[in-house]
Write a structure and sequence with these properties.
The protein has helices at residues 13-20, 26-34, 63-69, 111-122, 148-159, 234-241; strands at residues 2-6, 11-12, 38-40, 43-44, 51-52, 57-61, 81-85, 89-94, 129-130, 139-145, 164-172, 179-188, 194-197, 205-216, 220-227, 264-272, 279-283. It is α+β, with helices and mostly antiparallel strands. The protein has three domains: 3-69, Structural Genomics Hypothetical 15.5 Kd Protein In mrcA-pckA Intergenic Region, Chain A (Roll); 81-162, Pseudouridine synthase (2-Layer Sandwich); 164-267, Pseudouridine synthase (2-Layer Sandwich).
């Protein structure tokens, strides 16, 4: 539906709108201008103080029409690589060296805090929710939910191991065979250190890591990794157990660090969209391919 008004005398846009729509507050009218729902002489107008002259034609557009004519403005995003977004999820690429979410030390700069800042540029009442995490040293794709309901549904998929996750790791040396599966039991102590333990160890968690060598030479191998579980340092521990630590991972035995980072990247993520229940897949480029 479109409401059309012909101006009978010189005036200011917001003043004319206030006269025409006496039951609507000026704040609401300003929001309509911001949303691109007001046009003057068939051109979208955002300025409340736009001067009008006799004969000008104002049109009030419904929300559907305005979105078709004027897509939402692009907000500047600081230090955030957005892969995809809609009203339900936000998919981003985390850089290496950045925490996914604050620890009990309450770090101010995390991927989560950057995402919250971003959604609030659109609407101060908005929030986004962490669904899963990547280790600080790992780069790659992450999904955040834009409602508690969507968060719970996505986390259920992770819990049920139905999310398809692919990583790439650059490791030292040549692997003992072309592919395999590492099943380990990992224990994280109070200082967040991870170690491999026996299956019956109290508080230990199973870690299942499938791997395949994609390319290799005498010094390094590029490995494609799929994980059934999402334990802290899981892939790094698995590569250590194989005798091929991830390049740059000094903590787990690496002797080289040519890129100044641990060469582990979460490249693909596939899950059921929380609203449509349709499978969606997102991918990012491997930075050390």
């Amino acid at each position: 539906m479109i409401v059309e008004i012909t101006i009978s005398k010189d005036t200011i846009l917001l003043d004319e709108l206030s006269i025409q729509f006496t039951q609507t507050s000026k704040n609401k009218l300003r929001k309509m201008l911001t949303e691109g729902r007001i046009s003057v002489n068939d051109k979208i107008e955002h300025k409340a103080k736009r001067e009008l002259t006799k004969g000008d034609i104002i049109k009030i557009l419904d929300k559907t029409t305005s979105k078709e004519i004027t897509p939402p403005p692009q907000h500047k995003v600081k230090n955030l690589e957005i892969v995809f977004e809609d009203e339900d999820i936000l998919v981003v690429e985390k850089p290496a060296g950045l925490l996914s979410v604050a620890t009990n030390k309450m770090e101010s700069d995390t991927l989560h805090s950057r995402c919250v800042d971003y959604v609030k540029t659109k609407n101060q009442s908005k929030w986004c929710y962490i669904v899963h995490r990547l280790d600080r040293e790992t780069s790659g794709i992450m999904v955040l939910a834009l409602s508690k309901h969507n968060k719970e549904y996505l986390q259920q998929q992770f819990s049920e191991r139905s999310v398809y996750r692919i990583y790439f790791a650059l490791v030292e040396g040549m692997l003992p065979k072309k592919s395999g599966t590492e099943v380990e039991w990992l224990l994280e102590d109070k200082n967040l250190r991870v170690k491999k333990v026996k299956p019956n160890t109290k508080s230990s968690k199973e870690a299942i890591t499938h791997w395949e060598a994609i390319r290799e030479n005498q010094s390094t191998s590029l490995v494609r990794v799929l994980i059934d579980t999402g334990r802290r340092h899981q892939i790094r521990m698995a590569m250590k157990s194989l005798g091929n630590p991830v390049v740059g991972d000094e903590l787990h035995g690496a002797e080289t660090d040519p890129m100044g980072r641990i060469c582990l990247h979460a490249s693909s993520l596939e899950f059921l969209h929380p609203q449509t229940d349709e499978p969606v897949r997102f991918e990012t480029k491997v930075p050390f391919n």
